[in-house]
Amino acid sequence: MKAVSNAGPLIALAKLGSLGLLLKLFNEIFIPREVFIEVVTNGLLRGASDAGSVDYLVRQGDIFVKDITLPATLPEWAQMIDRGEVEVIFLALRESPDWLLIDNAHARKAARSMGLPLKGTIGLLLEALRRRYLSLREFELLIHDIQAQPNLWISESLCARALMRARSTTSSRS
After folding, report:
1. Residues 6+ away with beta carbon under 8 Å from 147
2. Of 8, 31, 59, 170, which residue is least crowded by CB atoms under 10 Å?
3. Cα→Cα distances 135→33, 127, 132, 141, Å
């Protein structure tokens, strides 16, 4: 499976110590240059420990950085989102991934209007649970960690819905 990722899911999974899930879920992971700059270059300048984890995966050849040339005139959907999000959508249109990994609501709306298949951080964790890369306990702990970290901007209501879905899914397996 192939994924194109925006900064949000990379940062969140790195902060949770769960970037390895991407390697289990996807054979190929692509990011545009602007996302690399946002996550790694700027992250390292700020001293963000998660930046080093993403940089390591890029240097190991697990995440591929792609250069994107944007058109001179951007489409209307690109007006409400930042350059990295615009690049990630154009990269997804070029690469036709199984999933575009993106959390930001405005960027998700733009990507959805382009017909791209979306997953956010929570969706990735649910997929890892579904494929049994995570146990229910591990999933619950990651959700707790998301809720406890103020620098992860994932809503309480989304976390609560994910917990309910995970518990109902795993109880129906038994």
Report:
1. 156, 159
2. 59
3. 34, 11, 6, 10
Amino acid found at 7: A
Give the contacts of 14 (CB within 8 A, at least 6 positions apart). Answer: 49, 50, 51, 53, 54
| Confidence band for 153, pLDDT divided at 50, 70 and 90 | confident
Confidence check: pLDDT of 48 > 80? yes
Tell me which amino acid residue 76 is: E
- Whole-number Å distance between alpha carbons of 62 and 139: 24
CB 97 within 8 A of CB 3: yes
Residues 71-80: contacts with CB under 8 Å, at least 24 apart: 77/109, 77/110, 77/113, 77/114, 78/110, 80/106, 80/110
**Structure-token pair, residue 67:** 């250069």
* pLDDT at residue 137 greater than cutoff 60: yes
